[in-house]
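#structure-requests
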Amino acid sequence: MKTKFRTIGLYSNSSNKKVLSIGQQVEEVLLSKGCKILYNKAFNNAYKPKQIKASSANLLASKADLIIAIGGDGTMLSCSREFGSKNVPILGINLGRLGFLTDIAPDELTTKLSEVVTGRFDADERFFLTTKIKGQRSRFTALNEVVIHSGAIAQLIEYDLYIDDVFVYRQKADGLIIASPTGSTAYSLSGGGPIMHPSLDAIALLPMFPHSLNNSPLVVKAESSIKVILTDKNTKAQLSFDSHNSIRLKGNQEINICKSKSVLKLIHPVGHDFYDACRNKLGWSKGIVRPM
């Protein structure tokens, strides 16, 4: 029997009625199992007359045995960056459309959540990507992908790509997507990148609309040191992380991306299957519907 979860944090980046309704249902299940509950600010004063007081992010990170993220993959991404990188396990309740990171659907919440908190669950680990701009002290974390892009429609940028300090190519493109296996079913997939099983220790590099007829996605080992140098001093580009925030880049800047030392521990209901998720969310095995 795996460890039971005793102190559980509820997280969302939205306070809409659906989130709060699911939050109340989660609360009922957890209290029936004798769990202590901490809440982030999305639930502050939501359930009258209890007048719940939100816990700080530091308190959630230090006290919670598990964080339950209620929402779509965007909620899971923000939760993962904030808490998963601090070694707090995360379970997702899916209120979105695709939901590759969120496992539990609202209609099976009571059963699945009861099993998880009492120690019946599967778990896997996902690595983050760390990005550093040469000459700057800040480091940035992404779970899905790091994207270097022009920031404008139909505008190319030119860059040099190095892997482990070995020159790979010079490319003109709208940008470059550097994706983890977790991110291979996200933005990278929409650009024609490869789907990678989450257990793979690899990184995919996908040029965005390259000005070339013979350029394909490149998959390298996760321990690779990836360096991208903007070659034109007049280039105006942007750098984004999980489509969350954007940083302006100047020409000739050097961007370094590597596998992070921190990992995300994802909690799944027993029987979680990546290929089943692909069939359901990407339409694998569906028959062709012929027009009448």
